[in-house]
Write a structure and sequence with these properties.
It contains three helices and ten strands. The chain has 186 residues and is of the alpha+beta class. It folds into two domains: 1-39 and 156-186; 41-151, no CATH class. Strand 5 (89-90) and strand 6 (93-94) form a beta hairpin. It starts with a helix and ends with a helix.
């Protein structure tokens, strides 16, 4: 029984899957953030309309309305690159006081740190962005509907490297299957 056609087919599929993931992760985590930093250069003042339905790392972010050239747009944000939640639990009771690193004013953290659950971070977001508050919106002048609030939240470089590395390993596995198929066919 010849198995080389199976290895060749499986190898080709795995190789294309690995290459596809490399292309996808490169676009999402390298090219798209680079494009945003280079093109989302115009700013306008937006108004918080309330809490959006969008969740960024377990936190509901505000819905912001802004206007460019007489056209009204909405964007949910700001967004976060990650969240670290710590709590101290002794005999089933949480000891830590609820707090987060989201300030009422000033620069927002890229990664939210919270103790004793997500409720402290959500409360800080709601307090920082009450309905009617004016905030800065950065948008692409060529396509004003593409925007973010206050600052962009890029994905961690280590996560990007890990995802692309795993994808490359998948592609290499596909190459190994193809080589096995070619050797078996001889």
């Amino acid at each position: 029984m010849t198995v080389w056609p199976v290895f060749l087919t499986a190898g080709a599929l795995v190789l294309f899957l690995g290459i596809g993931f490399i292309v996808l992760f490169n676009y999402l985590y390298i090219q798209k953030p680079r494009y945003r930093s280079e093109h989302y250069t115009a700013t306008v003042t937006g108004t918080v309309k309330g809490r959006s339905n969008f969740i960024s790392n377990d936190i509901f972010v505000p819905l912001v309305e802004y206007e460019v050239n007489g056209q009204t747009y909405k964007v949910a944000g700001p967004r976060f690159a990650g969240i670290v939640s710590k709590s101290i639990d002794i005999a089933g009771m949480e000891i830590a006081k609820e707090k987060s690193n989201i300030p009422l004013t000033g620069e927002l953290p890229l990664v939210v740190h919270t103790s004793s659950g997500i409720s402290a971070a959500q409360a800080a977001m709601d307090e920082r962005y009450p309905t009617g508050k004016q905030v800065t919106v950065y948008y692409d002048p060529d396509c004003p509907k593409n925007a973010f609030v206050e600052r962009d939240a890029p994905v961690s470089r280590s996560l990007t490297s890990v995802l692309i590395g795993i994808s490359a390993a998948i592609a290499v596995l596909g190459i190994v299957f193809i080589v096995i198929a070619l050797i078996s066919a001889i």
